[in-house]
Design a protein that fits this description.
This protein has about 100 residues and is an alpha+beta fold. It has two helices and six strands, in the order ββββββαα. A six-stranded antiparallel β-sheet has the order 3-2-1-4-5-6.
Length: about 100
Amino acid sequence: MKIAAVTTDQIIIIDGVVAHLREIGGFQMGNGEWAVHFNEELGYGHIEYTDSRDNRNIDAAEFQVHYAWLKDEHQRYLDHQAAEAAANEPDPISEPGGDSGSV
């Protein structure tokens, strides 16, 4: 699984699927992270900062402790999108030409 999170853009991308977290309240990384990139298959990634700090490599253990929640936030967005889609689907019984229950 390849994960990228960009704080300023409020997006989390997992395996190419973009979650626009701004639409559901956003997310926050509290240590000045501009972006976090991580490849679970390879077990490494890096952090980019908003200030003058150099980018820093991270391993799987550090990702799990400090950034695994990004996967949960991504899923929260996908769940929200699915709920929105379900809520906006027409009811086939009340649609013209739908099954009105008559025999």
